[in-house]
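Duplicate of #3305? Posting structure anyway:
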């Protein structure tokens, strides 16, 4: 689990390379700094109150369904984090842990999820958002949007509590089994991470407005090898993301590894096929973007699908995201690095696709429509909740000023915000 946590932590610097390569030369450092800044701010906040909001109340008998009021600042002591009890022949960690995974290890693992989620949003506001405002927004947003949603999905809240959650209200609760008849499935973060980040990116892009010259100036990636390197690091780190969410080295973890690989490979090919048909040429940036789309889509579904189902899910994700990235030109919102087209669209598809392709409970496997209804509901709840909380978070930090000046934007945000340039050219 600690190795998995380290892999997920690596994803944020990997994202910095991915986003940095996609940016223009005069904004690459700022783009990378937004990811590294997220590492600093969100890690500190997670230790102070993020973990307690996300998980502590769900493991201490608290009644807080959003995870906001129970056990604030639970990491100030360590006794609860190390408390154990014997369950059969194993030692279970009962206060905020996950099965036999110690709570303190779970803290480290989940901290990295919060960091990468905030960093993902930054791609939608490239080249125009003040760096200080970005850091403040990240701290406010992760508190108002990410931690409550993580608690709702993973920490015993509205979307995960077997007896009090919405699924048991709709489809009933099995007293003998101690579980809802149909439970939502989000194995590693389709709602909490990708729909959350993608919807926040859309809201921020609309509030901030377009970059100077959007629709007229060609925004070409300044360093495609950076993009490919970033995609490689993301794919590598994603095994910690998905496989680590099993919380054990077992057969399910092996299934998750294979499903993650299968969906990602199929998504890359799906994206390249769209480019070949639409544009005449498959591109390196398209391959890298298809990889990310596949990783996003399989994240919530990786423990519920077969490898063949994962191929189908991934291929469709690559096609959908490749088509979706053109919507910003049609509807006039400046999602700079296609966070909406990749993370929101593929995240929605991966979450809803479970209702079709999940082994046993999916519609295509004879499971009926119930799982599909549950998956649609959790996707809608995530979209609405995140949209509202992102607007609130943005207006809380508005007094700091959202955007750099037009002059600073034209000069280059690296120079004006950080007094640096990426390359010293004669």
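Output from current build:
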């Amino acid at each position: 689990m600690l190795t998995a946590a380290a892999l997920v932590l690596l994803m944020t610097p990997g994202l910095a390379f991915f986003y940095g390569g996609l940016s223009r030369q005069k904004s690459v450092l700022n783009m990378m700094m937004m990811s590294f800044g997220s590492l600093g701010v969100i890690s500190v906040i997670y230790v102070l109150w993020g973990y307690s909001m996300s998980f502590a109340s769900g493991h201490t008998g608290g009644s807080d369904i959003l995870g906001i009021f129970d056990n604030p600042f639970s990491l100030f002591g360590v006794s609860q984090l190390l408390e154990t009890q014997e369950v059969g022949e194993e030692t279970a960690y009962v206060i905020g842990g996950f099965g036999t995974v110690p709570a303190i290890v779970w803290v480290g693992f989940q901290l990295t999820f919060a960091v990468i989620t905030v960093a993902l949003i930054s791609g939608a506001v490239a080249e125009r958002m003040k760096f200080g405002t970005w850091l403040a927004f990240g701290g406010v947003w992760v508190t108002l949007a990410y931690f409550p949603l993580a608690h709702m999905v993973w920490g015993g809240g509205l979307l995960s509590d077997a007896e009090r959650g919405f699924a048991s209200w709709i489809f009933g609760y099995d007293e003998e089994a101690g579980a809802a008849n149909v439970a939502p499935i989000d194995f590693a973060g389709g709602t909490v991470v990708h729909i959350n980040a993608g919807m926040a990116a859309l809201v921020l892009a609309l509030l901030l407005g377009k970059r100077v010259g959007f629709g007229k100036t060609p925004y070409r990636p300044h360093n495609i090898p950076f993009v490919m390197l970033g995609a490689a690091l993301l794919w590598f780190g994603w095994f910690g993301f998905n496989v680590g969410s099993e919380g054990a080295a077992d057969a399910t973890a092996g299934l998750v590894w294979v499903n993650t690989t299968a969906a990602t490979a199929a998504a890359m090919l799906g994206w390249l096929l769209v480019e070949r048909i639409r544009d005449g040429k498959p591109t390196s940036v398209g391959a890298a973007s298809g990889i990310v789309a596949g990783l996003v889509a399989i994240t919530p579904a990786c423990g519920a699908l077969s490898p063949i189902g994962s191929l189908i899910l991934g291929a469709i994700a690559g096609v959908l995201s490749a088509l979706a990235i053109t919507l910003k030109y049609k509807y006039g919102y400046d999602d700079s690095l296609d966070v909406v087209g990749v993370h929101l669209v593929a995240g929605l598809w991966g979450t809803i696709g479970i209702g079709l392709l999940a082994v046993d409970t999916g519609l295509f496997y004879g499971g009926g429509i119930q799982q599909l209804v549950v998956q649609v509901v959790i996707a809608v709840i995530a979209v609405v909740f995140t949209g509202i909380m992102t607007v609130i978070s943005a207006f809380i930090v508005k007094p700091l000023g959202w955007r750099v000046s037009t002059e600073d934007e034209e000069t280059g945000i690296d120079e004006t915000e950080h007094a640096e340039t990426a390359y010293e050219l004669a």
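Confirmed duplicate; merging threads. Residues 2-228+247-418 form a domain with the Ammonium transporter fold fold (CATH 1.10.3430.10). The first helix runs from residue 2 to 22.
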